[in-house]
Structure formats: structure tokens, C-alpha cells
Design goal:
Length: 176
């Protein structure tokens, strides 16, 4: 029996362990590996919640993109039956739909990039804990990158909502 003190990430553990006689092998105590894993999971909780929020944003954005595409396809199906005035109005709306589609797509791209960066933050936190290396600068840089990507995604989303609300005109005379 011998007492060893080891530092794994932010956890200092003292444990009496048996070594295999003649082999010089040391085994990691079960309690130690559990402590490291539980600490790594604790560090990863906040980024996991952030991933959940980003997933919600992506769901909203994907739904909006789907509605834009459905509207454009409805014009494709009815195009041949439209008269000249309706075709001109449809061309204008198709241009607006194309702008909205592009902005919505960028929003999805930015938020997906943010989610990938958050996943890399989680990986960096686990690697830091398991291998007792200092990756705080990497995790911090990845997190800042994720926040910048989320901000860009939200700006694009805001722009798409603006386009959606300002490029439509409702003819109230039709409802009289």
C-alpha cells in the first residue's frame, strides 16, 4: 500500500492504491475516474443548455425557411393559370421570397456554426479534465466564436422578419 496524491484538472485526489508487485503498474482508482467524469460533466452543463437554445432557434428558422419555399412552390404550380397582372405581382413577391430565403439560410448557417463551436467547447472542457491540460484559452475562444455566430444568426433572423413584415401588402378591399 502506498499513498499517492494526484491532480486531475481542478481536482486534487489523495488515495491509497495497491501496485502490482514487480510490474510497477498503477491503476486509476474508480473513485478518481468518477470524480473526473462528474466534474467534466458539471463544466459541460452550461454549454449543453446553450445548445438547447440554439436548437430552438434553428427549429424556428427552419420552419420559416420551409414556409418561404412552400410559398415559392405554390407560385410555380399556379404560374400558367395566372393572368398578366397576377404574374407581375407574383414576380415581385418571388423576388421578395428569394431575398428572405437567402437571409434565412444565412441565419441557419450562422446558428449551426455556433452549435458546432459549442460542441467543440464541450470537447475542450472534457479533454482539459481528462488529460489535465490547460485548454481554457481554447474553450474561451471557441465560446466567443459561438457567441459571435449566434449574434450574426439573430441579426439575419431579425432581417428576415423585417423583410417578411415590410414586403407584404394586404388589400383590405378584398375583405369587405
Amino acid at each position: 500500500m502506498r499513498t499517492t496524491a494526484a491532480r486531475y484538472g481542478n481536482i486534487k485526489v489523495s488515495k491509497e492504491t495497491n501496485s502490482i508487485a514487480g510490474h510497477g503498474a498503477h491503476t486509476m482508482p474508480v473513485e478518481l475516474s468518477t470524480a473526473i467524469i462528474s466534474h467534466a460533466i458539471q463544466l459541460a452543463i452550461a454549454p449543453v443548455f446553450l445548445l438547447t437554445g440554439i436548437a430552438g432557434l434553428l427549429g424556428v428558422m427552419a420552419t420559416r425557411l420551409g414556409r418561404i419555399i412552400d410559398r415559392a412552390r405554390s407560385f410555380e404550380k399556379t404560374w400558367s393559370g395566372l393572368h398578366a397582372n397576377a404574374r407581375e405581382a407574383a414576380r415581385v413577391e418571388m423576388g421578395n421570397l428569394e431575398r428572405r430565403r437567402r437571409v434565412c439560410s444565412w441565419s441557419i448557417n450562422f446558428c449551426t456554426s455556433a452549435a458546432l463551436l459549442v460542441c467543440l467547447v464541450i470537447v475542450a472542457l472534457f479533454v482539459e479534465e481528462f488529460f489535465a491540460t490547460n485548454l481554457q484559452w481554447l474553450a474561451g475562444a471557441l465560446f466567443v466564436g459561438a457567441m459571435v455566430a449566434v449574434i450574426c444568426g439573430l441579426v439575419c433572423f431579425l432581417r428576415e422578419v423585417y423583410l417578411a413584415t415590410h414586403t407584404i401588402s394586404i388589400d383590405h378591399k378584398l375583405f369587405e
